[in-house]
């Protein structure tokens, strides 16, 4: 004996999905930028320095002396001659006191004093190391005024392009139920 059977067969629905991704493009151009740096304003001011040249020693070296220097030298030389004369007179007096000691001091003194001493020393040549040079620089006044840079920038907006994505859904297969009764 056969038992009746109920047979159910189902087919599921099948969906088809087709998707297209969104496309976005961004293009950014470089900004235009200019930078200009003006030169700083610099000012330097300085008074003239003080230059002192003393040639006195060089002139004295070649015999071109001032009246004051000549007077001092003549006075010093005269004092030395005077001191030498006092010394010579004292020595001659001592020799005359001892006239009894066999000798002829009077004729010796006359012969010695008959000589005339004239000595003149010519001046030397001027020497650069006898010239005193002094220089005192004056202080410098320096002022600096900086100028700020000039910056100019032109921005560029980005170019945007966008294509939206798309999703298409379709039913590729319908759902189906088949019921069969088998005896």
TrEMBL record:
InterPro entries: DUF6470
Organism phylogeny: Bacteria, Bacillati, Bacillota, Bacilli, Bacillales
Name under which the protein is recorded: YviE
One Pfam family it belongs to: DUF6470
Top-level taxon: Bacteria
